[in-house]
Amino acid sequence: MALSEAEKARYYKEGYVVPDYRLPEAQVASLRDTVNYLIEANPGVRPEQLVNAHLASPSAEGVRGAAELLELAKEPEILDLVEDVIGQDIILWGCQLFCKPAGDGMEVPWHQDGQYWPIRPLATCTVWIAIDDSLVSNGCLRVVPGSHSDQQLHSHYTDDRERLTLTQAIEPQHLDEEAFADVELRAGQMSLHDVYLVHGSNVNTSVNRRAGLAIRYMPASSEFNRDLIEPSDKSGYKVDFSRRPLWLLRGQDSSGKNDFSIGHA
Ligand SMILES: O=C(O)CCC(=O)C(=O)O
């Protein structure tokens, strides 16, 4: 087992966990080069909004990604962590780089991920990997521990303030903001979080960049329904799930409903 019993218990109770496992330094250095490449290759996209960063050919969202990130998402050590929380039938369905540049990194408002995604029953474990140190000072991930525990999606509204990474924000009556925890990570460390966990992050006005990669895995007992959400920019940027490729990385498609042929170049 990759997570200790205590780490697993923490994930279930709090909705997130920071495992002991971390990436080697040389790999983190190489990932930093990849982040620099992605920023250069996508001059028209905010670096917080590099959706489908694992797809080397330009995706439906117009982002040119990097094959190295797809390889990272397939690494057995990471899949072992994911298997401990969502079981052995694992689908990779998404990957987003949230890179907040030094000085002007944008906020991510409080939200539940499930608000954005066409997965039923709703389920996903996100592995969020720190490529730079991610600290309070440069806008690390913040979570409301235990906010996932009723496994309910709460109402969101469109936050129309300028300079937001995402624009769907949870309604204030569902937010216990006082109870938040900062998830500070050193480069190479990672956190895992549940699809119902309320989380967000602050702006980055510091002199240090904060790049984090969110890799999305779902149990194959759920269906990725490409017809459920029309292509739109409701998130604050364009997302089109209709040709989104899926990879069955472990086990079987136990729902029997997922199509693994769509969207592969
Ligand atoms: O990187 C961040 O600050 C936010 C990440 C996030 O919202 C997510 O992984 O769902």
In brief, what are we looking at here?
This protein has 265 residues and is α+β, with helices and mostly antiparallel strands. Helices cover 17% and strands 24% of the residues.
How is the secondary structure organized here?
Blueprint: H1 5-14, E1 16-17, H2 25-41, E2 50-51, H3 67-73, H4 76-86, E3 90-100, E4 108-111, E5 119-120, E6 125-130, E7 141-143, E8 156-158, E9 168-170, E10 181-183, E11 190-194, E12 199-201, E13 210-219, E14 223-224, E15 247-250
The structure holds 2-oxoglutaric acid (AKG).
2-oxoglutaric acid binds next to strand 6, strand 12 and strand 13.
What does this entry look like structurally?
The chain is α+β, with helices and mostly antiparallel strands. The protein has one domain (about 20-250): q2cbj1_9rhob like domain (Jelly Rolls, Sandwich), CATH 2.60.120. The chain is about 15% helix and about 25% strand. It has helices at about 5-15, 25-40, 65-75, 75-85; strands at about 15, 50, 90-100, 110, 120, 125-130, 140-145, 155-160, 170, 180-185, 190-195, 200, 210-220, 225, 245-250. The radius of gyration is 17 Å and the shape is globular. The structure holds 2-oxoglutaric acid. 2-oxoglutaric acid (AKG) binds near residues 98, 126, 141 and 201.
